[in-house]
């Protein structure tokens, strides 16, 4: 069964299908959709687009990013302070990695009371 892009209607090869919110897109449109707002860290944007060229989200992560993701997988959630302490990262590094992982829809932040927790995107 042929697939076409939900945005530009172009036919998409099986290997070039990208799914976003239940719809299929070609690579160009997918990158377009995921293009973050202008205020975003350009480094994060670059990394998010680099990942799109890979097939597997997690395979594209740096060891540092994997460490962060794996920690949150185990714990479920963690505050910035907890992550800094346990992963031996500076706040700046952590915020930068988080921005990348947020773009990839791997992690997100949630507010509980007056604290911000980092959690897995689909949790
Ligand atoms: Zn398209």
How would you describe what is shown here?
This protein is α+β, with helices and mostly antiparallel strands and 123 residues long. It is built from five helices and seven strands. It has helices at residues 27-34, 42-52, 63-75, 80-87, 91-103, and strands at 3-4, 11-12, 18-20, 23-25, 77-79, 107-112, 115-120. A hairpin with a 6-residue loop joins strand 1 (3-4) and strand 2. Helix 2 (42-52) packs across helix 5. The model has no long low-confidence stretch (mean pLDDT 82). It binds zinc ion. Residues 5, 7-8, 10, 25-26, 28-29 line the site of zinc ion.
SSE inventory with pairings:
Layout: E1 3-4, E2 11-12, E3 18-20, E4 23-25, H1 27-34, H2 42-52, H3 63-75, E5 77-79, H4 80-87, H5 91-103, E6 107-112, E7 115-120
Antiparallel strand pairs: 1-2, 3-4, 5-7, 6-7
Helix pairs in contact: 2-5
Zinc ion is lined by residues 5, 7-8, 10, 25-26, 28-29.
Count of DSSP H/I helices: 5
In spatial order, strands of the major sheet run 5-7-6
* Rough outline: elongated
Using only CA atoms, what is the Rg? 16 Å
Helicity, in percent?
40-55%
Give the class from helix and strand content and strand pairing: alpha+beta
Topology pattern, helix = H, strand = E: EEEEHHHEHHEE
Largest β-sheet summary:
3 strands, antiparallel
Small-molecule binders here are: zinc ion
Flag low-confidence runs: none
In percent, how much strand structure appears in the residues?
Answer: 15-25%
Beta strands, count: 7
Mean pLDDT: 82
End-to-end Cα distance: 32 Å
């Amino acid at each position: 069964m042929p697939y076409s892009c939900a945005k530009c209607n172009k036919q998409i090869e099986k290997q070039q299908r990208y799914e976003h919110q239940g719809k299929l897109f070609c690579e160009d449109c997918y990158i377009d959709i995921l293009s973050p707002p202008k205020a975003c860290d350009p480094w994060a944007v670059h990394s998010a687009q680099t990942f799109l060229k890979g097939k597997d989200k997690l395979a594209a992560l740096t060891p540092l990013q994997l460490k962060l993701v794996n920690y949150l997988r185990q714990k479920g959630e963690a505050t910035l302070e907890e992550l800094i302490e346990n992963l031996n990262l500076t706040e700046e590094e952590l915020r930068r990695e988080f921005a990348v992982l947020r773009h990839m829809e791997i992690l997100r932040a949630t507010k509980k009371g007056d604290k911000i927790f980092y959690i897995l995107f689909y949790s």
